[in-house]
Amino acid sequence: MASPAESGFPAAPPHSQYEAAIPMRNSPEYRQDPLSGSWVILARARAERPTEFVAQPVRRRLEHCPFCAGNERFTPRAVATYPAAADSQADNHRWQVRVIPNKFPAVIESAPDIPDCGAAADRLAPLPGYGVHEVIVESREHTSSFSELSAEQARWSLLAYRDRLRCLANDSRLAYALLFKNCRGGGGATLEHTHSQIVGTSLTPAVVQRELQAAAEFHDRHRDCIFCRMVRSELDQAVRLVASTARFVAFCPFASRFPYEVWMLPREHAARYEDASLGDLDELSALLQLVLRSLEKNFSQVPYNYWIHTSPFDSAPFDYYHWHIELIPRITSQAGFEFGTGCFMNPVAPEDAASTIRVTGI
Amino acid sequence: MASPAESGFPAAPPHSQYEAAIPMRNSPEYRQDPLSGSWVILARARAERPTEFVAQPVRRRLEHCPFCAGNERFTPRAVATYPAAADSQADNHRWQVRVIPNKFPAVIESAPDIPDCGAAADRLAPLPGYGVHEVIVESREHTSSFSELSAEQARWSLLAYRDRLRCLANDSRLAYALLFKNCRGGGGATLEHTHSQIVGTSLTPAVVQRELQAAAEFHDRHRDCIFCRMVRSELDQAVRLVASTARFVAFCPFASRFPYEVWMLPREHAARYEDASLGDLDELSALLQLVLRSLEKNFSQVPYNYWIHTSPFDSAPFDYYHWHIELIPRITSQAGFEFGTGCFMNPVAPEDAASTIRVTGI
After folding, report:
1. How does pLDDT run across A292-319, given as a tens digit for each residue?
2. A312 to chain B, minimum CA–CA distance in Å?
3. Mutating which of B235, B320, B331, B339 best tests the A interface, going by the most A Cβ atoms within 10 A?
4. CB contact under 8 A, A348 and B307
5. Which of B12, B305, B351 shows the shortest C-beta gap to A335?
6. Helix, strand or coil for residue A151?
7. Which residues on chain B are in Cβ contact (under 8 Å) with A252?
8. What is the dihedral of CA A158, A160, A163, A165, to 10 degrees?
9. Which of A92, A210, A326, B57 places its Cα 20 to 30 Å from the Cα of A332?
10. Closest residue of B to A348, CA-based?
11. How confident is the model at residue A37 (pLDDT cuts 50, 70, 90)?
């Protein structure tokens, strides 16, 4: 991602040039703020989404839920099902996990080029919103949290995450894909039925860029992985530890932004989630469900988000990086201070949080 | 702010060292995430706040509202009132705007030092949460939005912002202060009565740091202010313009993160809000009210935040910086994608947003 300095704000361009840069159609764009260097996805099609949660926060709409088994006709055709159909081209009606294109995508595969109006080098030139946006439906039944899935469904879900990441990694136009989950209305979900999303973008996100940079710098200095060091520290101190298994560790990070924020990392160094073995996914899906159940035992029906940070799709090796899951319960809200500073206020020390939600005797 | 590379993650420290670094008391701390470089304020006292909005989203509690005139006994003693009392030490009971210490401060003036346990140089060393956290009550009456204030009250409010910033700038332990407003429950307000807050911190926030860096780099390259250039561009193109007055311009920024986001900048270059004249504040308060009324006409009772970005309190001159107000209506929610990437999805193009809320004939 270009630093804010790499190109200048355009010098009072002629009208025509600017007007050409303002697309009047409905296709998505990436736009970069010249001050923060951050990218925004202008996703006009998202404005047409249904808003189940806004109008009806808890009502379950089994009959019309597009994600329930039997209602497949309400969604686009599946791009993958788990277990797969005998004919891999077909939509397996006995699916446990079903991957479909997002009906209201933030980015699209057919984003037309934005006419080159000579402004491409300046910071006000939008980029076409090329990308892939899929939904991973994690259950045949109308369950509302990942914690309620059977162990088998949870495993299929984590396998689907891996397979979709592997698949998108082969698209040379994509730089990255984020797998994330929005659970419950307060977690930003618009549909209740348990699902995750994957958004592949032609840019590597700023948050991942910063992690990569910190990990690279730490590796240059210490010949060690910053995440491996963190795993050892947290296991050693144990004050922020939430749970640990043979292959994974879960803890509340030292600078938790959110009360009861939990990170889950493989103990063994691994740069890519896509390389996780079936054994890894078995253990991780069980750990994730245990941590979520502990959170929900303490905070009934808590909205939450989680996402996977893995290496970009670049051919460059990111040996210094270490994939992980970040999980944030949505108990606090973000407001003027957080948006104006980039600094979060957290009323619960991670040491206290870990002591509350700690899972023992796994 | 130190880059993530400037100090390493500690090398498996002995237990005692870490335990010393985990304060068991109730005082706030700053903690830096070694991966993002971002700071978090661990503000345990905030957990004790009342949550009027969570339980009772619209109920007006006039009798017990601590901010209503006549209920001053429910709050700490004022640190300033506008107009001031004849005896400037006294709390003027005829106040129009009243500044009080926050009863549940995120940061405190008496934050004790955290014992130096030899970990000060590493990234897991928390800093004492020194700072100032005040509330600016903007009306004697129980109004819920800045737009409902009389022109006179609005002017007193902007004057109070300026005076409190001037006052905090004299505290050598503070690096910065953010003036911000959370309006309505969806905007993060816990009390309905119109108020703003000011948080002075011993660190300059990451978001402001990035703006300063972009402005400095642009200035080095173009011998011009990036914000002045933006003002000229937006006036010239006019497609994202919301309103303009003799001294100020309001527009939806090119890379708006939020639908109907509006920035307000002085047309003349000025690094510090604290230097604004009374004439400036007159005009700005009128503009701010007009923009808010236009937003509220389109989106009834819309929750919003705004904040002032001004220069840090450092003695260094920030001649290349240009103060401004950022205003965000809280129509969309932030979820897994936004937190996992740092990239916002905005379903409304700023050109369309500006055309909807444009204020003409000022």
Report:
1. 999 999 999 999 999 999 999 987 778 9
2. 12
3. B339
4. no
5. B305
6. helix
7. none
8. -80
9. A210
10. B44
11. confident
CB contact under 8 A, B210 and A343: no
Closest residue of B to A32, CA-based?
A: B255
A329 or A61, which is more confident: A329
Q: What is the pTM of this model?
A: 0.89
**CA-CA distances (angstroms) from residue B109 to B27, B131, B173, B291?**
10, 5, 10, 36
**B160, pLDDT greater than 50:** yes
Cβ-based contacts of A299 with chain B (< 8 Å): none
B207 and A341 within 8 Å at the Cβ level: the answer is yes
Best mutation target among A42, A49, A179, A257 (most B Cβ atoms within 10 Å) is A42
- Residue carrying the six token digits 């509330």: B135
Give A178 to chain B, closest Cα distance, Å: 7
Report yes or no: B272 and B311 within 8 Å, Cβ to Cβ: yes
Alpha carbons A136 and A199: distance in angstroms, whole number:
11
- The region, left, alpha or beta by phi > 0 then psi within -120 to 50, assigned to residue A335 is beta
Q: Which of B182, B210, B226 sits opposite A335 (nearest CB)?
A: B182
Question: In the predicted model, what is the mean pLDDT of chain B?
Answer: 86
**Sheet harboring A39-42: ordered strands across?**
A127-128, A29-32, A39-42, B344-346
**Min Cα–Cα distance to chain A from B49, Å:** 10
Contacts A16 to B, Cβ<8 Å: none
Residue type, B190: T
- pLDDT confidence of B116, banded at 50, 70, 90? low
How close is the nearest chain B Cα to the Cα of A283, in Å? 23
Percent of chain A residues topping a pLDDT of 90: 69
Question: Looking at the partner chain, which of A253, A336, A342 has a beta carbon nearest the beta carbon of B306?
Answer: A336
pLDDT digits (tens, 9 = 90+) for A175-206: 999 999 999 999 999 899 999 999 999 999 99
ipTM score of complex: 0.89
Give the per-residue pLDDT at B124.
67
Identify all chain A residues contacting B28, using CB atoms and an 8 Å cutoff.
none
Does B341 have pLDDT greater than 50? yes
How many angstroms away from the CA of B39 is the closest CA of chain A? Answer: 6
Q: List CB contacts (< 8 A) between A201 and chain B.
A: 341, 343
Distances (CA, A) of B180 to A102, A104, B91, B145, B195: 36, 34, 23, 14, 9
Mutate to test the interface with B, among A337, A345, A355 (most CBs of B within 10 A): A337
